[in-house]
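[audit] Reproducing an earlier prediction to check determinism. Same input, same settings, fresh worker. If the tokens differ from the archived copy the diff job will pick it up downstream; this log only records the rerun itself.
[audit] input (196 residues):
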Amino acid sequence: MQNEPPGADTLITACPYRDGPKLEFIKYLARGPYRSLQDHIKIEQVGEDYIVRCTDLKNWPANVLFNFCIATRIPIEESYVVDGWTSMVKAGVCEHTAYALAAYYNHYDDDPTKPIMARPRALTHHFPMDSSSSIHNLITGTFVPNKVSQKSFHESPSEVKPCNQIWGYSNLTERTLIQGKSPIEISALNLGAAVG
């Protein structure tokens, strides 16, 4: 990410999708985990293609903006997450829970009543969360204040890292509630409220 020209107040990130699940996933990110910044996320059609425009960069904490840009690359670099999210949402799993499960557990089985038996996968690469991130915060779109950059990208583009810590950390209650349950059962738990 670069702040060019100096003082720029808009950033455009990749969205090479025309329609379908990948574009719907990008729209979900704006209304889901990044909903507190939804007014500054514009998904615009340009000809037959789309772009994601992040506006008013002074309102984006630097590492949250970087985290969002990484998340918009999931359909390109980690398309199985979109496949899992789409499958679970179609089967009736809450879209927020589906995102967390598809991302954390690489869970995209076509049967959302099957228990998740896997442990969280190691998320050590370029990804918007890691295996210790709080699922509750991800579902509720809550950024942990002491993990969020105090400066905007506009003020300090160098403060974009660490970006995957903005969600805070998972706790024992959260992990215990999920263990051995299916996506449908987990969705019914309403983790956004249950582990708050």
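[audit] rerun output stored. Observation attached for the diff report: Residues 10-194 form one domain.
[audit] end
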